[in-house]
Amino acid sequence: MSAEKELTYSDVSEHTGKKDLYIVVHDKVYNCSSFVDEHPGGEEVLLDVGGQDATEAFEDVGHSDEAREILEGMLVAKLKRVDGDPAPKSSAQPTAAGTKDAATGFGIATYALILVGGALAFAAYQYLQAQSEQK
Ligand code: HEM
Q: So which domain of life are we looking at (predicted)?
């Protein structure tokens, strides 16, 4: 088993070319060279964050789970922080994830409400039918 590779910001900052492009997202280092031409958001934005922390840029767009899977496939190393490095930019993640979860939760609650409402209406209908048959 090989030890997990670690790169510092200064290592990452050496990979800024289109054919050698490292970016940092949530303290992990990704080699995006193979994806630059395929990025639906264009190559320019990826080249802009080459060799740097792209966490905010990546999260601000609200990338899909598919985009996150592509990203994980390009993982090369963990980011190793040394004194003087910028603070972790991980605060964007809970916000984005939270918004998504909240939206999903709302969707489920709405469906539940419609189902329960429908069931109640059906029960009331049956009850009233039974009542009128008794008369
Ligand atoms: C290497 C990291 C990245 C990956 C793997 C990636 C992947 C993707 C994918 C798969 C999409 C299609 C929509 C979706 O599935 O969400 C997308 C769209 C987009 N991305 Fe990225 N992206 C990356 C980094 C970035 C960065 C750093 C920016 C900077 C602003 C960015 C800006 C955009 C924009 C603006 C779109 C929307 C394009 C459109 O719908 O016309 N992406 N990205």
A: Eukaryota
In this structure, the chain runs to a length of: 135
From the CA of 30, give the closest atom in ligand 1.
1
ipTM of the complex: 0.91
Q: Find the 104 Cα to ligand 1 centroid distance in Å.
A: 22
Q: What percent of the chain has pLDDT over 70?
A: 83
The pLDDT tens digits for 20-33 are 999 999 999 999 99
What does residue 49 show for φ and ψ, rounded to 5 degrees? -100, 5
DSSP assigned state of 49: T
CA of 121 to the centre of ligand 1 (A): 46
Structure tokens given for 89: 């930019």
Phi then psi for residue 35, to 5 deg, are: -105, -10
20 within 8 A of 13, measured Cβ to Cβ: no
H-only helix segments in 6-91: 9-12, 43-48, 55-61, 65-73
pTM: 0.69
pLDDT bin (cut points 50, 70, 90) of residue 134 is confident
